Give the backbone structure.
Amino acid sequence: MKTLNRRNWLKLASIAGAAPLLKPLDNFIYPNSPIDIDSMVDVDYVRLNYNENPFAPSKKVKEAIINSFDISARYPGKPINELERKIAAREGLDPKNIVVTGGSREGLKATGLIFGLEGREIITCVPTYYALMSYADHFGAYINKVPLTKNLEYDLDGIDARISSNTSMVFICNPNNPTGNVLDPEKLKSFCESNAHRTMVFVDEVYSDYITTDGYPTMTSLIKKDLNVIISRTFSKVYGLAGLRVGYIIAREDIAIRIREGLQAGSNVLAVVAALASLEDEEFFRYSLNKNNEAKELIYHTLDELGLEYIRSHTNFVFFHSGKNINDMIREMKKRNILIGRPFPPLLDWCRVSTGTIDEVEKFNRALKAIYS
Ligand SMILES: Cc1ncc(COP(=O)(O)O)c(C=O)c1O
């Protein structure tokens, strides 16, 4: 029997209404032939919109998942403990400082819920990765938004000036999404040290694995000093496990306990096994970093040729000044089968493109040149 692809199934479902939904859904999940993976993702498109790693999962990670399949009948407590121990050892911390989450987004949401419920204020710069604030806003927090500086960097002085007794948290994304830039290490450290006694400081370090030069200002040293600092990291980026959903929070033990209590689903056995294997796969990690740098250089080269301003990125995406409305850019690129990043107001004439395989980046470069020809 022919399997319905997702688009056709959605069409059918919307025409048919809710009643007969079970039948096509059954067919979709349990076809007689192997599951039609192509129908589950937009394979027609070059996906440069979600900052994923196009080279993953690595061979070693795939093997680890397959070899662990039998334990998927068991709850994930034991492998999660092992992952927390491994991460803690790498960071020179205690496992009680680590909370494994269902993607770092779950950690952001749990934190947003806890601090949102206090009904106070969260200060952040915009644009940034907004998941924590969206959630906190939903639960009653007031979001105090500080614009980025002229150079499109996080405005730490601007945030500092707004902190008051009503501020329950400051959110900083470093490197920032969508700009891809990093803060000066000393400046961020002194900001955190001087403000962590006034409020909680959350630092999203999801893209930190892309920074291989010395001096990246991870704030883990402040957790060793028991300050009010929370850090989030992920296995979705260089490690390439975005679809498996595994990330983690690093925080003082009492804060970690509160966040753990706020988790909704957590991660799962196979994701955690994959994360453990990925930590051992140094070769794939290096390969991903090298390919990412190669891809960024190709994008920079085209932007230079076109005379378009951009920010040198410490991540797996590039933010550039297209000078065109982002919705038009998205449409123009989509016509050429390429998906790029969403709008990041108020920078509506800037565009975020993720790195992909070299072939995908070349397609993007050709499309960009065509748009500006
Ligand atoms: C800055 C930042 N933080 C967090 C996330 C969430 O990532 P995940 O939930 O896959 O760990 C993303 C996703 O792109 C991101 O850009």
Q: What stands out?
A: Residues 51, 103-105, 129, 173, 177, 204, 206, 234, 236, 242, 247 surround pyridoxal-5'-phosphate (CB under 6 Å). Residues 1-33 have pLDDT under 50 and may be disordered. DSSP finds 14 helices and eleven strands in the chain. Residues 19 and 72 are 32 Å apart (CA to CA).
